Amino acid sequence: AGEEHYNVISAFIKSLRGSDPDAAVYWMMRMLEAGEDPLFIARRMVIFAAEDVGNAEPQALQVAVATKDAVHFIGLPEGRIPLAQAATFLATCPKSNAAYRALLAATEDVQRAGPLPVPLHLRNAPTPLMKGLGYGRGYQYPHDHEGAVVDQDYLPDALAGRHYYEPSDRGREREIADRLDAWRTRRGRGS
């Protein structure tokens, strides 16, 4: 209860982030033994999977959501089993908060620059009037090109060249970083 509730959940999350499955399970069991709602713990793991593991191990979010569903479906005491499985999995995943950092950086630009217009080539043109106004003109359909990558801007002009998502060198993000570097080089925009 009270402040200790927040101290224990903080210790749990920090143990997951610190890649310590033993401490994570200990703090999780402290919460459960004290009567914490198991769905609260599962919700925190869903957030953690997206915020702290991210694309370093994309399966983490699926595991966390499946855990939430399993705990909701079976309840306690058996719900402790999928919670422990998820906690140990998340703790042992490679970690990256690159997607979360991208969200924060994009939010900052949205708030700073306001509602910038969508470039004409990215606008849908379902009517002759819209086509006449230039909507969709010059859009290159990536699947019609080698590697499904084209040299085309997708951000408003005021943000051209901005990079929000910078993958880490951990887990699956290492592959994503290599792929992004190759695409950016191909587009002549470098890393």
Question: Care to describe what's here?
Answer:
- It is built from eight helices and no strands.
- The protein has helices at residues 2-17, 21-33, 38-53, 59-74, 80-92, 98-113, 128-132, 173-186.
- Helix 1 runs parallel beside helix 3 and helix 2 (21-33) runs antiparallel to helix 5 (80-92).
- 21% of the residues are buried.
What tags apply to this protein structure?
191 residues; mainly alpha
Q: Could you say which overall geometry the principal axes of the C-alpha atoms support?
A: elongated
Q: Radius of gyration, rounded?
A: 22 Å
Number of strands: 0
Helical fraction equals: 55-70%
Q: How large is the count of helical segments?
A: 8
Overall mean pLDDT: 94
Order of helices and strands: HHHHHHHH
Low-pLDDT stretches are none
Please identify the oligomeric state: single chain
- Overall structural class, as computed from helix and strand content, comes to mainly alpha
Beta content: under 5%
